[in-house]
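Hi Y.,

Following your request, here is the sequence exactly as I used it, all 282 residues.
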Amino acid sequence: MQRLLIGWILFGLSLGFTGQSWAGAEYQEFVLQNAVVATANGASMPVTKYTTVALDVTIATTATVTFEGSVSGDAWTSIACTAINTGVTTTAPTATGLYQCNVAGLSAFRARVSSWTAGAVTVYARATTAETGGIFAFLASVFDYVNTALRVTLATLISGEDPTNNLLMTSGGVARMTTFSSVTSATTSSVSAVPMGAKTFVAQIINATSETKAATLTIYGNLISSTTGGIALCIITLPSTATTLQLQDSCPITSVNFLYYFYTATVYTSASSAPLTVYASY
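Below is the corresponding structure, written out as tokens. Let me know if you'd prefer a different format.
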């Protein structure tokens, strides 16, 4: 437990947590809109010495509130604020919520009712000099407090991700991707990319009737995106049969990495109800 606590403290320091006293931070409260029932600029608040504005927005029925900042006090520009409960940024919310806005460097801020249909709109604001960065901002950016889950997207996954199958390949497990499908005649596929590392290829024919079916498939690797040339890696033969509803076979595992792969079906005997499909498993 002691090591864990020390680890979190060091982690916070590495993210820029300075330990600023929240009790010593300055703040000031404003009412920007007070139960307005029409479009209105509302009151503007000075934010020259503040870094952040927290907003309590109440939209009783149907309206849009546009967050705006100004440097001169005359020209106003929309600014993006973050919904505290979801972490989603917006410049013009249409629903009640709590928002946090970065106003560092601005001289004034307002929450303009840019459109109104029905109901009252109220906006309370608190400007503060308190630090909002560091470990607290980091935790808010990666954790969804509404759904009590980490905010994970493909962009935030570490290396080893499998975008096609949404699988994080760190140890064990098998991912599969379809690389050749709906084959109903002897033909050559287009090129496809398969993730690096050890892999095998599986050919499969499945049908619901006892029709005769057979296939011979050659798998090629190529360093260029072309079906010209290439190196034959293996041949899969699915024997002719009219009694087996499912035929499948695979190549030996290969660790040779090519940038591209393609497939040539030199034999195909079946009906359209039993197409050939090729999978890459890795």
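The chain has two domains: 24-150, 161-281.

Thanks again,
Q.
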